[in-house]
C-alpha cells in the first residue's frame, strides 16, 4: 500500500509541474499585447512601457515562469491589474461558490443515479429498463442551461420558492444554500443520466460472473445479489466517471454560473480572459487544474479501497 501511495503522489507532483508549465506557456502565447489592450490604442509610449514593466513583460519567458511559480509555492499569487486586489483572495472567494456548487451537484447526481441504475439493471432487457434508458438519453441530450432557465421560470418566477440568481454569501448559510439549489439541480440532471447508464452497464457485466450465480444459488434474490455482491464490484467504472464529473462540474459550470449570476471560479476566468488580466487567468486555471488532478488522485485511492488487487499490484 505504501508503494502504491508513493507512486500516486509522484504522479501527482509531475502532473502539477507539467500542467503549470503548459498553462503559463499557453496564456503567454495569446496574440496581442496585454498592456496595449488594457490601456487602449491611445496610450502614451511611456505609460505603456511603465505598465509592461509592472507586468513583467520585458523579462525573458523562463524568468517570468520561475517568478510566477515561485510566488505560488510561497502563497503569493500576485495582484490583479484589473481589480487591484490579491489574486489569492479572489480565487478563495470564488472557490467558496464553485466548490460547494460542484459538491452539491455531484451528491444530487449520485442520489439520483444510484437507484435508477440499480432499477434498470434489475429489470434489464424488459420494459422498465427500456423506459429508464430512454429517459436517461433525454437527460443527456437536454442542454443544462435550457433546463436551468426552465427551473427559474417554475420555481423562482411562478412559485417564488427559490431565488432566480445571485449569491448572498456564506454569512447567511440558509440563503446561500437556497441560491445554489437550482444551479445544482441543473448541473446534476445530465450527470445523473450518464452515471445511471454507466452503473447499469457495470452491474450487468458483473451479474454475469460466476460468484453472482453462486450467490443466487444460495437463495439470494436478484435485488439482494445486486446490492450485496454486485454493487461494490461494479464501482471501478462508476468511480472513474464520478471523478470526471466532479472535474466537469467544477471547471465546466461557466454557463450555469452566468445564468444564475453566481460569482464562481469559472466566471472569474471568463471575465479575466476578456480583460486580458493574465495573472488572474494563469493562477485561477492552475488552481482549477490542481483540484482536478487532486480529485483524480483521490479516485485512485478509492480504487484501492474498493479493489484490494490494486493495492497488491
UniProtKB/TrEMBL annotation:
The chain crosses the membrane at residues 99-120, 132-157, 177-199, 234-256, 284-306. Residues 95-299 form the ABC transmembrane type-1 domain. GO terms for cellular component: plasma membrane. CDD domains: TM_PBP2. It holds the Pfam family BPD_transp_1_N. PROSITE patterns: ABC_TM1 (PS50928). GO terms for molecular function: dipeptide transmembrane transporter activity. It is found in: Cell membrane. It is a multi-pass membrane protein. Signal peptide: none annotated. Its main location: membrane. InterPro entries: BPD_transp_1_N (IPR045621), MetI-like (IPR000515), MetI-like_sf (IPR035906). Keywords: Cell membrane, Membrane, Transmembrane, Transmembrane helix, Transport. Belongs to the binding-protein-dependent transport system permease family. PANTHER family: DIPEPTIDE TRANSPORT SYSTEM PERMEASE PROTEIN DPPB-RELATED. This is Peptide/opine/nickel uptake family ABC transporter, permease protein. It comes from Paracoccus aminophilus JCM 7686. The lineage of its organism: Bacteria, Pseudomonadati, Pseudomonadota, Alphaproteobacteria, Rhodobacterales.
Amino acid at each position: 500500500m505504501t508503494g502504491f501511495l508513493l507512486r500516486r503522489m509522484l504522479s501527482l507532483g509531475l502532473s502539477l509541474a507539467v500542467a503549470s508549465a503548459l498553462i503559463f506557456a499557453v496564456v503567454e502565447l495569446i496574440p496581442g499585447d496585454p498592456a496595449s489592450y488594457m490601456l487602449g490604442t491611445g496610450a502614451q509610449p511611456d505609460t505603456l512601457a511603465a505598465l509592461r514593466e509592472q507586468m513583467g513583460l520585458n523579462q525573458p519567458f523562463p524568468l517570468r515562469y520561475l517568478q510566477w511559480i515561485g510566488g505560488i509555492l510561497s502563497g503569493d499569487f500576485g495582484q490583479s491589474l484589473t481589480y487591484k486586489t490579491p489574486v489569492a483572495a479572489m480565487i478563495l472567494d470564488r472557490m467558496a461558490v464553485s466548490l460547494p456548487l460542484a459538491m452539491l451537484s455531484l451528491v444530487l447526481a449520485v442520489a439520483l443515479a444510484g437507484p435508477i441504475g440499480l432499477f434498470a439493471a434489475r429489470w434489464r432487457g424488459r420494459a422498465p429498463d427500456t423506459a429508464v434508458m430512454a429517459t436517461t438519453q433525454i437527460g443527456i441530450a437536454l442542454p443544462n442551461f435550457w433546463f436551468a432557465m426552465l427551473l427559474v421560470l417554475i420555481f423562482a418566477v411562478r412559485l417564488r420558492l427559490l431565488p432566480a440568481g445571485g449569491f448572498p454569501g456564506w454569512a447567511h448559510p440558509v440563503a446561500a444554500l437556497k441560491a445554489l439549489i437550482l444551479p445544482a439541480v441543473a448541473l446534476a440532471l445530465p450527470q445523473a443520466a450518464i452515471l445511471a447508464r454507466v452503473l447499469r452497464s457495470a452491474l450487468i457485466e458483473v451479474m454475469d460472473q460466476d460468484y453472482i450465480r453462486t450467490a443466487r444459488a444460495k437463495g439470494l434474490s436478484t435485488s439482494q445479489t445486486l446490492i450485496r455482491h454486485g454493487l461494490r464490484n461494479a464501482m471501478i467504472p462508476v468511480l472513474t466517471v464520478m471523478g470526471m464529473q466532479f472535474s466537469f462540474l467544477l471547471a465546466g459550470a461557466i454557463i450555469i454560473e452566468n445564468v444564475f449570476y453566481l460569482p464562481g471560479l469559472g466566471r472569474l476566468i471568463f471575465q479575466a480572459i476578456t480583460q486580458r488580466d493574465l495573472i488572474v487567468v494563469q493562477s485561477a486555471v492552475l488552481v482549477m487544474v490542481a483540484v482536478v488532478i487532486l480529485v483524480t488522485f483521490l479516485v485512485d485511492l478509492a480504487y484501492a479501497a474498493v479493489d484490494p488487487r490494486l493495492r497488491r499490484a
